[in-house]
Amino acid sequence: MKRPERVVVIGVGIVGACVGWNLSRQGADVVLIDAGRPGEGVTDWSFSWVNAANKTVSKSYFDLNVAGMAAHRELARTIGGDSWWHPGGHLRWADDPAAQVRLLNTADLLASWDYRVEVCTGAQVRSRLEPALAVPGDTPVLFCPDEAWVHGRRLVDRLVGRAVAAGAELRSGISVRDIGTGADGSIRSVALSDGSRLDAGAVVNAAGPSGSRIAGLIGRHLPMRHEPGAVTRISCAQVPVRRAMHAPHIEIRPDGDASVVLHSREIDALIDGGEDPAELARLLHESARHVVPELGNARIARTRVVNRPIPADGFPSVGSVPSAPGYYEAITHSGITLGPVIGRLLAAEILTGKRDELPADFRPERFPP
User: Fold this and answer.
1) How far apart are CA 260 and CA 295, in angstroms?
2) pTM above the 0.90 mark?
3) Alpha-carbon dihedral 265, 267, 270, 271, rounded to 10 degrees
4) Which of 124, 172, 232, 299 matches a 20 to 30 Å C-alpha distance to 40?
């Protein structure tokens, strides 16, 4: 297969950055386009938990996320993980008996799929892992030691820097207005908001929440969910936790030396009701201090509501679209976990024309015209 003359990657969050870096380091002519600043959209406002334990709805989806975890470890070895890669595991527990039974059933399923998981007590967790937690001593807690969290914006910065050093061009603060196609539907050009037009042999739609709009520029229907999420960063003199965790009603993780990230699906449910973001942040902080009392003295720094890039059936849309030669999709929630593996697989598909079987269940053509 002949390589495309130029690949335009639309959207430079974690997924687009991984695709662009993988292409550029293999000698492709790459242009990275972002309407804002790379890594400062959904990537920067994600819980950023690298895992497969929460992806057990199907074995193929679980396997893809396990591959994503492995790709992260390989990426850290390749480009250095000092500023962005934070292994150390993940903790999860519940506060009602029915939810605790579901967690233990999940632990059994994960173990049957050869995924490392330990069932600890709250007392063991406080003794061995997180002394600042206010988890009851006899509460069962799942510990997945191979999981991690990622500082997404720093990872994107590093990948973009390496891509540019390899010859890629970055255009930020510019949006895509149109995609030109030939009579056979193949990609020919990309028109930008600054009035310029780029000749292109391929386009990668990694536009996250704007993915449906970009797909529409070639007449493709990509149905997506409306699923907003609120994330709050709180500042503290000393971060009292060392790893990501899902406690009852609240998700907590470190975010560097003086910041902690908070998120909650329960709080997300209030967003469409018009709740003020400042009140969402207050509720998140209130829940967090019940789990980690030391966070009671922390200060709310920033809060943002973003729409998650989730195709309508909840699964990624990854790969080429046969009806539009040269058009590829890389739209997914769990972009933090899946970015490195999607970047590797999609770059290989673009450059060789060969489709890997790993994402076979998540091909774009499952959505009808």
Assistant:
1) 9
2) yes
3) -80
4) 299
